[in-house]
Amino acid sequence: MATKIAVLSQKGGTGKTTAVRTLTDVMRLAGLKVLAVDLDPQGNLSDYFDVDPQADPTIGDVLAGRASAKQAVHDDLMPANLTLAEAELTLAGKMGRELTLRKALFYDNEHGVLATNDDKAELLIESSIFGRAPKVVGGLHHLLNIGRIGKLSITGSRFQQGFEGHLIRSRAREAVISYNFIHDGVRGGASYEIELAAGGLATVIGNVIGQGVDGQNPVLLAYGTEGRAWDRNELYVAHNTFVHYGWLPAWFMRVFDDRVGADTKVFAVNNLLVGPGVFWLAASGDFAGNRHATRGMLQDIWTNGLELPPGAMWRGSGVDPKRINGRDLSPKAEFEWPVGTRAIAPLTNWTPGAYQR
What we know:
This protein is mainly β. It is 11% helix and 29% strand.
């Protein structure tokens, strides 16, 4: 079975070509059969291996559908030239704009993922970890920073160890944030845990959302901070466990209706609010089944046992979340440590918070 090694960076001068030619030389000296593929229109790798500049076909022809991959191999190299740039322009109008990140790890990055504006783009993040933001005063490094794309979906992932910036910042038209551990730690120093800056249609369900005592902003979930960017503005918040470790009151959720519009619809059901703070007083809308609790009411907050134990007073006290403004907001899964989710059986008795176990 062949092994594929990709060396890539959008920044020039980072040593991509040098790395590829060195790997190729070393592995060939070790007796391995190696096919090198040049994916730079400048053709520097092709030049290094003395491939004829007029070699035909090339990788550009393969991507454009004019040749097969086998036909484009010249002396164990698939060369590139300016036809690759032409192929890129052709492909730009054909390729889908959906990206999936699965089981990815982003530590100590200026922005773990930074997405620009494209209202047709969609991003799905599954079972990934974002953490350890650079401790640069004034840097405002967000672990996830998403522009005005069509849809953002995050599930089964962890966000932790922020510093001044937000754990999740999104301006997507639609955001579905479900069954994640968005928890900055007891001494976390992030600003917002979740910022849905441009409004839009947002569903936040089944998450643990935790704010540390060194947090830079008292708000855990912020909506509409930058005003209205989309025609449909609705916020659905269900079965989340909000945890605030500080002594001063938090805003577990704040809707900036003076910016996003007073006609924004907000629905919040069966959330568990741990620690001092306000929830429905910081937003207008339909609220039901949300319960306040102390840290001592949870199973074991210091080992991330953030569920209500058997016999707790709020067990089974939630409302039926299946028909909330015509939507089913019942949880179908729970976050499973260290990443991922586990499905839960259909329920008829609902406990506030992210865990039904």
